[in-house]
Amino acid sequence: MTDENQTALTGRLVVVGGGTAGAEVAFASRSGGWRGEIIVLSDEAYPPYHRPPLSKDLLKMDAVFADPDPLKGAPLYAKKDVDLRLGTRVDGIDADARTLSLNANQALSYDRLVLAVGGRARELPLVAQLETQPTNVHQLRTLDDCARLRACFQTGSVLMIVGAGYIGLEVAAAAVKAGQRVILLEAAPRVLARVTAPVVSQFFEREHAKRGVEILTSTTIERLSFGTDGRVSNVATSDGSEYRVDNLVVGVGLEPNIELASDAGLEIGNGIIVDDSMTTSDPNILAIGDCVDFHSEFYDRRVRIESVANAVEHARRAANTLTGRGPKPWQVPWFWSNQYEHSLKIVGLSTGYDETRVIDDSQGTSFAVEYLRDGRLIAVDAINHAAAFQSGKRRIAETIDA
Ligand code: FAD
User: Which residues line ligand 1 (CB under 6 A)?
Assistant: First the structure.
């Protein structure tokens, strides 16, 4: 370890963002030998928690909705001397002075800074342009969003979901189980079109239709009508239909929170640009998680990945950088989704595939799709098929290492 690193280990490490990546980098840096202050600043009201249950278990009517599912138990912060400051929003970075401005009127200096600021739900232009946001239009990113949405689940009410990606489909599954009429609108010709092969889309379309979810593909919103209370009352769609709705969920993707970084002059691409050590264009500032544009060693291109595994991997890699240890080898990216009793596990990135192979185990309820490019395995979708996921993970690492 260099002298410079020894000095750094006793300085002040500030982490902006108390999500998966932020919590992980704080604890991994402490266990990796950072002896100085570690401060985590989060604009949320809750200690860092798991987001995946927000669209799954926490939306079920019978799920216990007390405290969030914490990432690290509360006593651990004191035990490891990690200073978690909730309700604290960072408004600006002065990279030359190494100072942050907080909550509009406070300042905090840092020796090393980690941006773990995630992203925000993308808005529908038709809604974003409204002067006042209708109270029955929902997004799902935080525990508060989840609590608001779940409070609207009433048997027999009509929920329209815009966007049939993972979050849209998971919310559809929870809502239809809770007795709502669910209408799922998707601009692409099939659900999960951006991320899976047609056979996977067809499987999930069938499973949702079986439970009564009305799926409208190649369909967009044409017009919204409002009640006297300002809430959306009716939605006219591009196929010429009109639906009365009680609530609308918008699940059309994520915008990375890049503004703090770009205002500070850091290099930006499809996220905050970092190198292999998770360092940004400023050597004192690292960035990790959903907000980051990084070079994937496996796919030899720049990517931005939204998954828990990716956030944790970035955090541990950044902690290694901060504490002067070398980087660990990269893991093949992976992701999961649960809908009804079905488990979908995805390993690798299928973008750019030119061939698929379906491994069918049991009449279509347990199967896997392998994605290949130029004959090389690049990704596997495993539906109720843990073995295909595990073997895919190993084989992708091997073929890409070769
Ligand atoms: P985040 O978890 O978004 O954390 C960023 C934090 O920074 C937030 O708390 C934010 O409020 C805070 N912040 C932002 N700006 C500031 C600021 N200026 N000052 C202070 N604080 C700030 N992934 C999977 O792998 N499997 C799943 O099944 C899955 N399901 C999901 C379901 C839902 C509903 C959602 C929303 C996500 C899901 N994900 C899933 C994705 C996964 O949760 C994310 O990839 C992961 O949370 C990213 O972690 P992060 O720390 O980068 O960002």
Answer: 16-22, 41-44, 51-52, 54-55, 89-90, 116-118, 140-141, 167, 257, 260, 289-290, 306-309, 311, 335-337
